[in-house]
Amino acid sequence: MQDDTNLVVIGKIVGVYGIKGWLKILSFTRPRENILKYGPWLVKQDNEWPEMQLLEGKPQGKGLIASLQNITDRNEAMALVGSELAIDRDRLPAAKEGEFYWHDLINMQVINQQNKVLGVVKELLETGANDVLVVEADKQRYLIPYVKDVYIKDVNTEQGVIQVDWQTDY
User: Fold this and answer.
1) Beta partners for 59?
2) Peptide bond just before 50 cis, omega within 30 deg
3) Domains and CATH numbers, the chain
């Protein structure tokens, strides 16, 4: 059984492509094709993460398609639609000095410049213009644009703290 705490979700199976078991993939990596560099994929099924080898993958339209080992027809592929794709965290290359992965921000504490704790990062949203931190505490929720040096003043992954220029009444 796979330890969920060491997994990084990198995408999701969102549909099928053709009759030979190919899958439509929504990639959470940047650029989106980077998902094809990672493997083996762990495919969430009934709270388990079985390992599946990526045989082939490529861009198709605005998305990606992929072929997985032992998935040879449309019915087998349909059974995987909606499944999350993950890899072991250890398979990611080390972040460069001063850099981090988005998933490292999840559960970090967010503090404004008046030292008021706003909450913790629950997720990140892609909006097109810029990414947004979803910060929650009790019943309060803040959507803070991830704009470095404007709203995001410092990210300290060792301390687990993000310093922001954001007021509680925004």
Assistant:
1) 64
2) no
3) 4-91 (2.40.30.60), 102-164 (2.30.30.240)
Q: Report which of 160, 162, 14 is spatially closest to residue 85, judged by C-alpha positions.
A: 14
Cβ atoms of residues 80 and 37 within 8 Å:
no
E strands, 32-170, are 41-43, 51-52, 54-60, 63-68, 84-88, 109-112, 117-126, 131-137, 140-145, 152-156, 161-164
Mean pLDDT of 137-165: 94
What the block records as the tokens of 154 is 């410092």
The 10s digit of each residue's pLDDT in 121-143 is 999 988 878 899 999 998 899 99
Q: Alpha-carbon distance 134 to 124, whole Å?
A: 6
Q: What is the pTM of this model?
A: 0.75
DSSP result, 128-163:
SSSEEEEEEETTEEEEEE--BTTTEEEEETTTTEEE
Closest CA relative to residue 130, chosen from 98, 152, 100, 111? 152
Confidence band (pLDDT; 50, 70, 90) for 37? very high
